[in-house]
Design brief:
This protein is α+β, with helices and mostly antiparallel strands and 339 residues long. The protein has two domains: 122 residues, no CATH class; 141 residues, no CATH class. It contains seven helices and 20 strands. The N and C termini lie far apart (108 Å).
Length: 339
């Protein structure tokens, strides 16, 4: 008599084999292959067309720029992320060759369209549809092909940005060690912050030169700036970012004939940068408009807190103490009503 345990094991093995055979996807690729043929190191052209617009990015020298629908420096981090995600796409399994199923997988006329490659050379053209149920794969097809593929990778975040979101939001990115002078321009006065480097008193390599910053004013004597406001000014002016943009002639542009405040930065090598500010009177006051180097075609929206870090007057530059906030008239009214 045969061993019942052996019989049971045999049945389980046969059942498992049958399950694997029946559940196996015949359209699944045996060895994953890259969907795109381009080399990430040679990519210099990208086009993304989605429901929010159509944008073209081109590499100029070592940096990326938006070539259309406007000319502007591109966010290098976003570009790198898109290239990495696109190059990493791999075929998983063939889903269908039926054009009537395009809409089912969001690969119809409204699908995200992407071109990536070498301008004037090899360019991959793909449509990106909906993600898989596990959000680890994406349904895609190549331009000109009816084949719908399940592809490993999730590039949706990189493919779904609006054209305006691709802009580099850095207004100034300066080397603070190169800054030699800063002008703080108010309507009633201009304060000059000047770097002074004094040589060591003794001729020895162990003695470092001393660097100090002085403030020159229209009235009164020059004085050494307090370190606290100096750090705020320097940290802000060398790394100031925008939160949004305004473009002429699409948007209504504010009047810059009389800026509320301006900061002018001088650097070694005759480099010179200017940023003029006016408050956003139509907004909530938390953002100001910035005009860089007199260019009024594109204005930056900058947080008010960043502007206030630069708008320092003589008392604070001397002592490091912020001036008291003006009394709120509503407080006086509340007080009088309690008497």
């Amino acid at each position: 008599m045969k061993n019942p345990i052996a019989i049971l094991v045999g049945v389980m093995v046969v059942g498992l084999a049958a399950f694997l055979l029946l559940s196996r996807n015949p359209n699944r690729v045996e060895s994953k292959a890259k969907m795109l043929s381009v080399d990430s190191t040679t990519v210099n052209y990208i086009r993304v067309k989605n429901n929010d617009g159509d944008i073209q990015l081109k590499k100029v020298g070592a940096h990326w720029r938006i070539a259309s629908p406007f000319d502007f420096p591109a966010n290098e981090t976003y570009v790198k992320s898109l290239i990495d995600k696109a190059i990493g796409l791999e075929y998983e399994s063939l889903v269908s060759k039926n054009r009537e199923k395009f809409d089912q997988y969001e690969l119809g006329d409204s699908a995200v369209y992407v071109e990536i490659g070498v301008e004037g050379g090899k360019i991959d053209k793909i449509y990106s549809g909906k993600p898989s149920e596990t959000y680890t794969h994406t349904y895609m097809r190549r331009e000109g092909s009816d084949e719908i593929w399940l592809v490993s990778g999730t590039p949706k975040s990189a493919f779904s940005r609006r054209p305006m979101d691709w802009r580099d939001k850095k207004v100034f990115e300066l080397d603070r060690t190169m800054v030699t002078k800063i002008l703080l321009k108010f309507p009633d006065e201009t304060l000059e912050l000047v770097r002074q480097i004094s040589a060591p008193t003794m001729d020895t390599t162990l003695s470092a030169s001393d660097t100090s910053w002085m403030v020159n004013t229209p009235k009164g004597e020059s004085f050494r700036i307090n370190q606290k406001p100096f750090n705020r000014i320097m940290n802000t002016v060398t790394r100031i970012n925008a939160v949004d943009f305004k473009d002429a002639p699409i948007d209504t542009m504010p009047d810059f004939n009389k800026p509320e405040f301006s900061v002018e930065v001088f650097l070694e090598g005759n480099q010179h940068e200017v940023l003029d500010f006016v408050p956003n009177k139509a907004g909530d006051g938390s953002r100001w408009f910035g005009r860089k180097n007199g260019n009024e075609q594109t204005l930056y929206l900058i947080y008010q807190s960043s502007v206030k870090n630069l708008m320092k007057r003589v008392p604070e530059l001397k002592t490091g103490e912020e001036p008291p906030k003006p009394a709120d008239p509503r407080d006086k009214k509340k007080y009088s009503s309690t008497i």
